[in-house]
Design goal:
By secondary structure, the protein is α/β, with parallel strands linked by helices. It is built from eleven helices and eleven strands. Strands 3, 4, 5, 6, 9, 10 and 11 form a seven-stranded mixed sheet that branches. Strands 1-2 form a two-stranded antiparallel ribbon. A two-stranded parallel ribbon has the order 7-8. Strand 7, helix 9 and strand 8 form a beta-alpha-beta unit. Helix 1 crosses helix 3 and helix 7 packs across helix 8.
């Protein structure tokens, strides 16, 4: 009897959709090696190869095409069972800490969907800075946290805090639409306050590019940063999803600082409740809405085509 693991089927459908292990790994926030292993394991379970190589990547063979139809049905049924049982049984209260950049943008739809499926789970949403959230996580005062991964490592001390998921974001230098680059002698810069770990990385970006700059404003919140940029006070680092109307990015401009890469992690406190674990899993299983895929690490020893 076949035992078709939903995790293997999700990996299979992702590879079938994009045609490469590389692309599937990015969509699933896994390494190439991990996705390759999942495909090999699924082929062992069904007892047949599922793909053939082509110049453009991996293409479904006859067995793979047949499995696609069943895989979609199995996963849909799996989601429906989880939804119906969850509505009946899952309850409690979850304290979710998140930086403002995600609470105000991409997380909204995910939390709405989770609440629709789990109406008896109550959510306490704590929106704060990266440093404050990392401290609360270290003290086990929050069930789940989405914030800067380096800051969590720094605040964890002797306690190992491994993220359930980690991905990369880009802070791009943002200006109001009518900002004129050629008129700038000393770049007017808006930075987050000193407690924010992204401030130092922004300063390093300016220094590395050799930019002559002047600090014209300090912003304590995302709203403050967006307001300062919108009114034309200067340039400020912002995640793409948070760039306000009437503003634009200086991304890849040769005479201005380069985008700043930051790692964001999803963390769970020690001894988290079932409701918290279910919410974390729900966030992880909702790709393409909260996360910008990181470039996967190079796979070693994979037998499948990586492109």
């Amino acid at each position: 009897m076949l035992d078709l693991d939903p995790h293997l089927l999700r990996a299979f459908l992702s590879v079938a959709s994009v045609g490469t292990i590389n692309g599937a790994a990015a969509n699933l926030h896994r390494t190439q090696a991990a996705v390759s292993m999942q495909i090999r394991r699924l082929e062992e379970v069904v007892g047949a190869p599922l793909f053939v190589r082509s110049p453009k990547g991996l293409v479904l063979n006859e067995q793979g095409s047949l499995l696609v139809r069943f895989a979609n049905d199995i996963l849909a049924l799996n989601e429906e069972v989880a939804k119906r049982i969850g509505q009946q049984c899952l309850q409690g209260r979850v304290k979710l800490g998140v930086v403002e950049d995600f609470a105000a943008t991409r997380l909204i739809d995910i939390l709405k969907s989770f609440r629709e499926q789990n109406p008896k789970v109550h959510l306490d949403l704590i929106v704060d800075g990266n440093s404050q959230l990392a401290t609360l996580l270290a003290q086990d005062k929050l069930d789940l946290v989405i914030c800067d991964a380096d800051e969590v490592s720094r605040k964890a001390g002797q306690i190992s805090r491994n993220p359930l998921l980690i991905w990369s974001e880009q802070l791009t230098w943002t200006v109001c639409a009518d900002f004129v680059e050629s008129d700038v002698e000393s770049l007017p810069v808006i930075l987050f306050h000193e407690d924010c770990p992204w401030r130092q990385r922004a300063i390093e970006s300016l220094t590395e590019r050799g930019v002559n700059w002047t600090l014209v404003c300090e912003a304590t919140t995302l709203v403050a940063m967006a307001t300062a940029v919108q009114v034309g006070l200067g340039v400020g680092p912002m995640i793409t999803a948070t760039i306000p109307p009437g503003c634009r990015s200086l991304d890849h401009h040769p005479h201005f600082p380069a985008p700043i890469s930051v790692d964001i992690g999803l963390y769970e406190r020690n001894g988290a409740s079932e409701s918290a674990r279910c919410l974390a899993d729900f966030v992880i299983r909702t790709p393409g809405r909260l996360f910008v895929p990181r470039t996967p690490a190079t796979a070693l020893g994979t037998s499948l085509l990586v492109a």
